[in-house]
Every structure is written in structure tokens, then in C-alpha cells.
């Protein structure tokens, strides 16, 4: 119930204005957001790289509603790729289709993403397509399907809590897709998404099995130790080497566990968000885990 409340809060502009103007939020923002600028994110990724952890560069923002905004976001992604080339940090880049015009022109979104993918491929950098609200899932998967044949290293995020996800995955079974499996962090009705943790976990495990059997280089994005263990056992069961899949986590969450997994020989990547449009992202992170909510409340109490 608390999780759904925070997801509801994430979508309220009036509350956003109140929260983003509060100095009490600085400690929370600094915990989960690398900074306002690209250079802040690159600095954070350098620190991760020194520990053997790769990055996933994430420009915050979503739901662009005009061509100029989509062009601006595309330019920002291209600048990020250029800086990755110049700095040599180990990172992929995560792209949100609604930032590139998906909400009003799927063709424009494809054009932007194709250029981003081409520039990334030129420096052997991988692109990960984010997944957003359920209303955009079908178009997002269409975009991935169109580009995947030219850029087979591209990875698509899919959400374990959506009831439709197993069927969506089966449509890609012949191409052995590269998939990033996430729980899902948007407020969706019961007919679209599972609500109970036990139901979500069961589908998450089912999808882990699918990815190890029918996918390629899966990215298992979770902080749940039980689901991580399930993925490790699935790798052993299917004869998958530790280096042939990734465990992915979020910046500022379970950092010690990330380092322990690296020490055990697993590939680990951390999703590193940056930018000023942090409010919706942060509210979803608080909604996902009780530990994040406790951190939020402690910070408010300390003032």
C-alpha cells in the first residue's frame, strides 16, 4: 500500500514542486542521483569502475511532448557517448523512448535511437532501451524489434510485474534477445500488473528461467538477494558462465552487495542517473524498497 502511495505521489506535479524546492531533499537526492551534470555521472562511474563495477549511464527525464525536446534529448545522449569515448569509462547508456518522441512520433523516435545506436556501436558501447508505463510497452518493443536486427548488442528492459510480459518475450524467442529484467516501478492497475510481492517474484523467477534458456547475456536487475540467488542457480543449471550474464543494481542501493558479487566473479553494472529531472525517478525508488523509505524518513527527521 505504501509503495502505491509513493508511485501516486510521483505523478503529482504540485507535490513535485513542493518537494524539489525543499533543502531537506538534498541528502536523499545525493544518495540516489549522481548529480545534475554528465560529468558528475562520469565521476561516479569512475569510482564504480575502480571497484570492478560497470556503469549504466541514465539521463533523467521522460515524456517529451514536442520535436525540439526530443532533439535536445537525442543531442544529450550523443554528447554522453562522445564523453564516454574521451574518458574511457566502462559504461553502457540507457535510453528512454519517450524522451526521443515515442509519445507523438514513433518514426522520429526510431530515427533518433538509430543514430544513438550507430554512434555507440562505433566505440563498442552498448545501448539499453528503458521500459516505461504499460501504455508505451507495445511501441517500445516495436522500436527494439526494428533496431535489434542491425544492432544485436542492444538490450531491452522488460518488467516482471506486467501480466503480458511472458507473451511479449515469446515473440522474441527466435532471435535470443538481450533483455534487462526489472521488477517494474509504475502505478499500474491490477488487470495490467501483479500487485502482490509473491506474484511478482514468481513471475520474475519464471522470466529468469526463460532468459537463461532462450535469451542472450541477460541482465538481472534486482536488489532482492533471493532473486539474485535464483539467477545464480539458473546460471549453474543452464551451464551459463558467471561472465555470460549481468547482475544490475541502482546507484546508492546495496553497494556492499555489489562489491561482494564482483569479488565472487560476477559481472555487475550499476544504473547511474544524472540530471535535474530527478523527482519521478526518486519517488519510484522510494516506493520499491522499505529500506529506501526508511532512509527517506531518517533524512527528514535529521533535517
Please describe what this structure looks like.
Helix content is 51%, strand content 13%. The protein has a single domain (34-277), classed as TIM Barrel, CATH 3.20.20. Mean pLDDT is 88; it is low at 5-10 and 299-303. The longest helix is centred in the first third of the chain and has 21 residues, at 67-87. The chain is an alpha/beta fold. Strands 1-2-3-4-5-6-7-8 form an eight-stranded parallel barrel, surrounded by six helices. The protein contains 13 helices and eight strands. The protein is globular and about 45 Å long.
Layout of SSEs?
Blueprint: H1 2-10, H2 13-20, H3 26-32, H4 38-50, E1 54-59, H5 67-87, E2 91-95, H6 106-122, E3 127-129, H7 137-148, E4 155-159, H8 165-170, E5 178-182, H9 197-214, E6 219-221, H10 225-237, E7 246-250, H11 255-263, E8 267-274, H12 279-288, H13 290-302
What are the defining features of this structure?
single chain, 303 residues, alpha/beta, TIM Barrel, 8 strands, 51% helix, globular, disordered C terminus
